[in-house]
Write a structure and sequence with these properties.
This is SLC12A transporter C-terminal domain-containing protein. By secondary structure, this protein is an alpha/beta fold. The chain has one domain: Rossmann fold (3-Layer(aba) Sandwich), CATH 3.40.50. It is about 45% helix and about 20% strand. Helix 3 packs parallel to helix 4. The two termini are about 15 Å apart.
C-alpha cells in the first residue's frame, strides 16, 4: 500500500457511512502476474478492514498504466451504482518524476471525461496513521 494515509482520510471523511471502492491500477501482464494482482488485492482488503471502511476493493492490471487507469474508472461500481468522486495522492517529486506527473495528468483528464469530482491530496506521507 503506497498511500495508507489516504485510507485513513477516507475513513474520516466517510464517517463509516456509505460504500467506497478502494482501487489501484498496476502495470503488467495479467497472464504472467495474476498472483501479484491477487496479492495486491488481498493487501488492499486488509488495509480497508484495518481502517474500518465499508466497501469493495478492485485491482486492475494492464500492459500500460494509462489503459489501467482508464479501465479502472470505467469499470468501477456495480451496475448503475458507480463512483462520482476520485481521490488520489499528489505525486511526490512530480517536478523530476515524469511518470508520476503523466499519471496525474491522465487521472485528471479521465476524471473530467467521466464527469467525476476529483480530490487531490498533497502531503499525505507526513500524516500520522
Amino acid at each position: 500500500m503506497h498511500q495508507p494515509g489516504l485510507l485513513h482520510l477516507l475513513g474520516e471523511l466517510k464517517g463509516a457511512r456509505g460504500i467506497s471502492i478502494i482501487s489501484t491500477a498496476i502495470e503488467g501482464s495479467l497472464i504472467e502476474k495474476a498472483g501479484v494482482q491477487l496479492e495486491i488485492e488481498r493487501k488492499l482488503r486488509e488495509h480497508r478492514d484495518k481502517h474500518g471502511i465499508r466497501g469493495f476493493t478492485q485491482v486492475v492490471m494492464c500492459e500500460d498504466i494509462s489503459s489501467a487507469l482508464d479501465s479502472l474508472l470505467q469499470t468501477a461500481g456495480l451496475g448503475g451504482l458507480g463512483p462520482n468522486t476520485v481521490m488520489t495522492a499528489w505525486p511526490t517529486s512530480w517536478q523530476t518524476n515524469i511518470q508520476g506527473a503523466e499519471r496525474m495528468r491522465q487521472i485528471i483528464m479521465s476524471a473530467h471525461a467521466f464527469n467525476m469530482a476529483l480530490i487531490l491530496i498533497k502531503g499525505h506521507e507526513t500524516w500520522p496513521v
